[in-house]
Amino acid sequence: MMKDLRIRAAVPSDAPAVGAVLERCGLPTDDVFRVLEHFHVAILESRIIGCAAGEPFGQTVVIRSVAVLPEHRDRGVATHVVRAALMRARSNGLRRAVLLASSCPSYFARYGFTLVPASKLPQEVLSSSEFQRHTDTPPLCMWCELS
């Protein structure tokens, strides 16, 4: 882990910085304000360098918007924000985590995620705006049990 890296839940004033990280990483920013309460941020020297969100849908959390600025990658930052999102989901009593990814299945396999067909996802996830965003190119669907 990077010395002095801090992970915490996002607060409203983090929205512009979270949006900037997502934009720089090529991820959608259109609903940052709507889901900001579900984000965790990675802070280094008072600057947000990474983020991840865990948006709940029924008993399922959708892990999304995992991003780390390119100059800070491969140092464990993503690992910490993803773990924070999964920990929050477990503490809130959620039973499974779902990931809709266009890349990186091997990265998420280390957390216990496995590939599943979209038809196996809970209906509330299939109806979510995050899933609907991928109508042109179906995402890779992954999930894991939170126990």
Short overview:
The chain is α+β, with helices and mostly antiparallel strands.
Number of domains: 1
Kindly provide the radius of gyration, computed on alpha-carbon positions and rounded to a whole number of angstroms. 14 Å
For the record, give the distance between the C-alpha atoms at the N and C termini, rounded to a whole number.
Answer: 25 Å
Assign an overall shape: globular
Tell me what portion of residues adopts beta-strand conformation. 25-35%
| Total number of strands | 7
Largest beta-sheet characterization: 7 strands, mixed
Description:
The structure is a single chain. With 147 residues, this protein is an alpha+beta fold. The protein has one domain (6-145): Gcn5-related N-acetyltransferase (GNAT) (Aminopeptidase, 3-Layer(aba) Sandwich). It is 29% helix and 30% strand. It has helices at residues 15-24, 32-35, 77-91, 105-109, 123-126, 129-132; strands at residues 6-9, 39-44, 47-57, 60-68, 96-101, 114-115, 140-145. A seven-stranded mixed β-sheet has the order 1-2-3-4-5-7-6, sandwiched between helices. The longest helix has 15 residues, at 77-91. The relative contact order is 0.16.
